[in-house]
Amino acid sequence: MHMPQLGELRRVSLTLPMVKANPKVRRVPIDRSHAAAFQKLLSSFDEEDNLEDILDQAHVRIQALTDEIKVIVHIHKRKIAEAKLMAVIHDATYD
Question: In terms of domain of life, where is this protein from (predicted)?
Answer without folding.
Answer: Eukaryota
